[in-house]
Each structure stands twice: as C-alpha cells, then as structure tokens.
C-alpha cells in the first residue's frame, strides 16, 4: 500500500489536510482528495508537489477563489454561506437528476427573503432550473431544503442541522468569504441529508 499524506502550504507553513490519501482527482481547477475510508475533500488549492517516494502531496493555497465561487459571487453580488450551500446542493441534484433543461423542477423551501433565499441563486447556477424558466418555485418555510421532482422520481436535499448551526456560529460578515471556502471543502455527506424516492 502506498498511501500519502496531503499538506496544504500556506505562507511557507505546511499543515496536514488529509492522511492516508488513496486517490487524487483533478476537476477543472479543483483537486479532489479521497482517503482510504472514502472520505473526500474538494479544494481549490493547487497541487504543487507529488513525492511518490516519500508519499507526500503538497497543495498550495489558491490566490483566487475557485471558479464556481467566483462566478457565484459575480452573479449574486457577494459570496456568503447560503449561496455556497445552494451551489453544492444544486450539484448534488444535477448529479442525480441530470442537466437537461425542463426535465425536472425544484421547489425551494427557503421563503423569499435573504439570507435563506440566497440558496436559490446557488441552485440556479448549478442546475438547469431557474426561477425565470419556471424550473424553480420558492415556497415559504424558512428551511434550507429543496425538492427536485421529475416523472416518477423525487429527490429531497436538506442542509444538515449541524451545518446550519456551524453557519450561525461561524458567520463573520467582516471576513465573509472564509466560511464559504470551508463549506466548499466539505463532502456532500457532511453537508446534506438526502431522501430519494421512486414514485409509482
Ligand atoms: Zn446572499
């Protein structure tokens, strides 16, 4: 077995971000690391060194935001935790339901007011559904939950209670982009609860 340790280099200092790394994937400008137990992290950090003899991977902190977050910031006007969670939620939905426009619809139970409704902009950017094309309906509820439905299938995705608590505790308007980057690096399993059903 030759598992590696991944380090993130930040201002000349290295800190371990994952041990027993079994897989490294490159997706666009992001690096996806997966450990022996299947836990994965996705990071906008750049791979700067791979030492196969020493089993060491070194990543460098990005100087810019990952592209998806940069686009979200441009579209939404700022980069907060809710639009970030919406982006990731939409990715989960389109991985399962596809990216064909008009093939399914999403109901978001956020209500119409920010910050919760910021989630909807993330969904619009990462699924084929938008408010304008009739693919997204916003319902009252004050929840970070969305239901995607197509003929015969239903997928419900909710932000985990622990994550809502984390956002409430760690959100810092002075350093607004810190928390979105942390959330971005977490796995889908850490962020969301999923419920899938086949309708007959
Ligand atoms: Zn917002």
Structure overview:
- With 200 residues, the chain is an alpha+beta fold.
- The chain folds into two domains: 4-60, no CATH class; 67-198, 60s Ribosomal Protein L30, Chain: A, CATH 3.30.1330.130.
- Helix content is 28%, strand content 35%.
- It contains six helices and eleven strands.
- The chain has helices spanning 67-76, 81-97, 118-126, 161-170, 178-184, 188-191, and strands at 4-10, 13-27, 30-35, 40-43, 46-51, 56-60, 105-108, 136-138, 145-150, 153-159, 192-198.
- The strands form two sheets. A six-stranded mixed beta sheet has the order 4-3-2-1-6-5, with no helix packed on it.
- A hairpin with a 2-residue loop joins strand 2 (13-27) and strand 3 (30-35).
- Helix 2 (81-97) packs parallel to helix 3 (118-126).
- The radius of gyration is 18 Å and the shape is globular.
- The N and C termini lie far apart (47 Å).
- The model has no long low-confidence stretch (mean pLDDT 93).
- It binds zinc ion (ZN).
- Zinc ion binds at residues 76, 78, 80, 82-83, 114-115, 118.
Primary descriptors:
200 residues, 60s Ribosomal Protein L30, Chain: A, 6-stranded mixed beta sheet, 5-stranded mixed beta sheet, 11 strands, binds zinc ion
């Amino acid at each position: 077995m030759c598992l590696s340790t991944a380090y993130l280099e930040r201002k000349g200092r290295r800190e371990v971000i994952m041990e027993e790394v079994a897989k490294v994937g490159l997706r666009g400008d992001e690096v996806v690391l997966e450990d022996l137990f299947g836990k994965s992290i996705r990071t906008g950090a750049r791979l700067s060194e791979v030492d196969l003899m020493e089993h060491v991977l070194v990543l460098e902190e990005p100087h810019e935001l990952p592209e998806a977050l940069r686009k979200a910031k441009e579209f939404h006007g700022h980069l907060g935790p809710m639009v970030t969670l919406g982006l990731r939620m939409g990715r989960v939905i389109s991985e399962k339901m596809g990216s064909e426009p008009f093939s399914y619809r999403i109901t978001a139970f956020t209500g119409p007011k920010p910050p919760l409704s910021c989630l909807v902009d993330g969904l619009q950017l990462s699924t084929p559904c938008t408010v304008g094309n009739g693919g997204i309906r916003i319902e009252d509820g004050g929840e970070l939950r969305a239901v995607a439905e197509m003929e015969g299938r239903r997928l419900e995705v909710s932000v985990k209670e622990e994550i809502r608590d984390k956002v409430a505790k760690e959100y810092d308007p002075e350093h607004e982009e810190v928390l979105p980057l942390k959330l971005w690096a977490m796995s889908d399993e850490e962020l969301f609860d999923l419920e899938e059903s086949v309708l007959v």
